[in-house]
Specification:
binds zinc ion; 13 strands; 3 domains; binds magnesium ion; Ribonucleotide Reductase Protein R1, domain 1; OB fold (Dihydrolipoamide Acetyltransferase, E2P); alpha/beta; single chain; five-stranded mixed β-barrel; binds guanosine-5'-triphosphate; 337 residues; Rossmann fold; 9 helices; six-stranded mixed β-sheet
Length: 337
Amino acid sequence: MLQKNIAALVEPPFECGRIVSQDRGSYTVATCHGEKRAEITGAFRYSAQVASDFPIVGDYVAVLENEQSNTTMIHKLMPRKNLFARRGVYGSAELQPIAANLDTLFITAALNRDFNVRRLERYMVAAAGFDVPCAIALTKIDLVDDAIEHIKAAKAVAGGNPVVTLSALEGKGLEELLPFFGPEKTIAFVGSSGVGKSTLINVLLQEERLAVSAISSQVQKGRHTTTRRLLVQLADGTSIIDTPGMREFALADAEDGVNEVFSEVLQLAEECRFRDCKHQSEPGCAVREGVDADTYSSWNKLEKEAAYETRKTDRFAAEAEKSKWKAIQKANRLRKR
Ligand SMILES: Nc1nc2c(ncn2[C@@H]2O[C@H](COP(=O)(O)OP(=O)(O)OP(=O)(O)O)[C@@H](O)[C@H]2O)c(=O)[nH]1
Ligand SMILES: [Mg+2]
Ligand SMILES: [Zn+2]
């Protein structure tokens, strides 16, 4: 669970730990000596400014145990390999972190009536935007006679990333996950509620550790059974992160991700007749001619959303900069008095 090269960066008396879960203000941290409840120090809290400055599940941290008071404090966040996040509460430019240090993010979808490739595409864009390696996991294949159409549709948006198909219920296709396992590997499952993330992890753990519950039969949607992110470990040392099903996945910081997932659109755009073509209804638009209607509308929507988020982030950054200057000027004025 602890990566040797990161643990080596932690100098005594500190010890390296990994965040396995989070409960309001406190964390559960796994160290070489087992799991401990831990809190961040006052100095850490004081220097942290945005949500992504705080530890999140999957993070490595430097901790110090005080045997007298029987407390463990988190002193430092170790450098991250990557961070997967979405946009925070509506109207804010803050990221809402989901998990850190992932080797593979499994974008999970069930082969029931709720299956929707556009949703997969949205997660792919986010993963690409955060440079998080990803794969698509199609679950509940026992619900369809033939999964070939679903697989084709998923592969079409996966852009070369792996697509695995499985049934946790029947134990089918689990071996497709083996290439992603290993003692230093961390994988996470994300997706809508009810797609079977926790059920799958229970099967892999070979015990009923995580709560699961049936989806509603009318709307085929889950009941948001998992309520917090949790990192568990398989017998072979693989770290697996379970996450609560997400209702909507709002993009943050995703313009690069859109360009990567829709590289086909980007290439075609170079052939448009007008250099400033907006790819709406201009004559000789290579994009409108070259991509199918579904892909076009999906790209158009995600591209607009990502551009809007970027503008908003820039505006917030500018405002933060302005208020910082105001504070400095005020401090200077007070000093001069
Ligand atoms: N038919 C079928 N049902 C499955 C399979 N995997 C899970 N389920 C069922 O799907 C329902 C939801 O499973 P969960 O594991 O709770 O789903 P989840 O993705 O963790 O949902 P949240 O925690 O709400 O995000 C349960 O009733 C499971 O028994 C499968 O492979 N086939
Ligand atoms: Mg769950
Ligand atoms: Zn065009």
